[in-house]
Amino acid sequence: MPDTAVHEYRTLFMFGAPNANPRSWGLSLDAFADTLRSQDPDVFLNRDSSEIIGDELTFGFGEDLEGFAQADPDGTALRDCTAEEAAEFALWLRRYIVPETAEIEFNIRPAAEVDLPNRLLPRGDAATVKQALLAYIEDVLAAQERGDM
What we know:
Helix content is 38%, strand content 28%. It is of the alpha+beta class.
């Protein structure tokens, strides 16, 4: 697959606490919403609750970025975005939401749909995080192309 296609690939990126410690972030949907609102007063926020999914916060910010967050287990996702957009969001999570000692795992929709395990998000700058996300997309797309998924 051409490199530009990987950079432009859009999908749902999921970020969460490790399965072994699903509440390690101590995520509060109210604090998540307040943090988003403090950085973007025009952010769209909607809180909903159901017996099936529990409490969920949907949000929209910037030009066209949308996502959702849940607190049990701790996690959030960004819809229809590129690896670069997802990397920026992941760095925001590390800076404002996830405790310094806690880990972040990630996945993308096509991999999660076939139960591929989450991967640990590396610590580092935007380029490091973006490269990890791009490498995962390349792996998933190559597996799809081979018919392994």
